[in-house]
Amino acid sequence: xxxxxxxxxxxxxxxxxxxxxxxxxxxxxxxxxxxxxxxxxxxxxxxxxxxxxxxxxxxxxxxxxxxxxxxxxxxxxxxxxxxxxxxxxxxxxxxxxxxxxxxxxxxxxxxxxxxxxxxxxxxxxxxxxxxxxxxxxxxxxxxxxxxxxxxxxxxxxxxxxxxxxxxxxxxxxxxxxxxxxxxxxxxxxxxxxxxxxxxxxxxxxxxxxxxxxxxxxxxxxxxxxxxxxxxxxxxxxxxxxxxxxxxxxxxxxxxxxxxxxxxx
Length: 264
Ligand SMILES: Nc1ncnc2c1ncn2[C@@H]1O[C@H](COP(=O)(O)OP(=O)(O)OP(=O)(O)O)[C@@H](O)[C@H]1O
What we know:
The chain is α/β, with parallel strands linked by helices.
């Protein structure tokens, strides 16, 4: 498929992020295409979560330019940023749910903030989102502390899609889940992406998840996006961390398990 500028829903150019004297990103570039699932990988502390936070405007970079839907995230006036923010949803690593609200109330929270809906309609719509992520009916009125880790992640996902976003950002969605729970979450990501036409930007360490979901992978190393491409293309990248990650025993196991049964 030919890659045109119009396909790029996120464009990051020359990003520099520092905390004190610690430079996390130094001239990082990345494009995300509309409708793709892109997995962001890299060693611990390479700045994957910081990149996500910078793209959604929660963290101000020291330099560089970030555009989402063609609009600068950094220089957009408050009201326009509010409008822009409605077009994406974020699921943070721990779900970041409000502990004093039930699952349904958590999903209602962004609706309350952004949409003028009467109470019944808001409750109904929030209930639909909770069902969409595969949570049982009785989870609606539970508090986050009453849920398993996997259910909390699903609740976080339901909240991320509360406003019918075009992009969802997922920070390590399968971290902490057992392999069966992680595989079920991968299926959920894929199904919702296809059903809702979402663009998915997800940070992960999980090779199985990359194999199951990703159209492309972006590798963060040496303070930049060192390589971006398909899983197959990553096998050709000559960089010690990339080789170790994509050719190591865990990678081989993930390739094996992602092959259709009976394939050589
Ligand atoms: N608010 C902050 N203040 C100071 N340093 C920070 C802050 N947020 C992140 N950092 C530092 O920036 C670097 C990148 O952090 P980030 O959380 O993005 O890493 P990561 O690639 O997501 O790592 P992991 O895979 O371990 O989650 C780390 O060294 C971290 O300590």
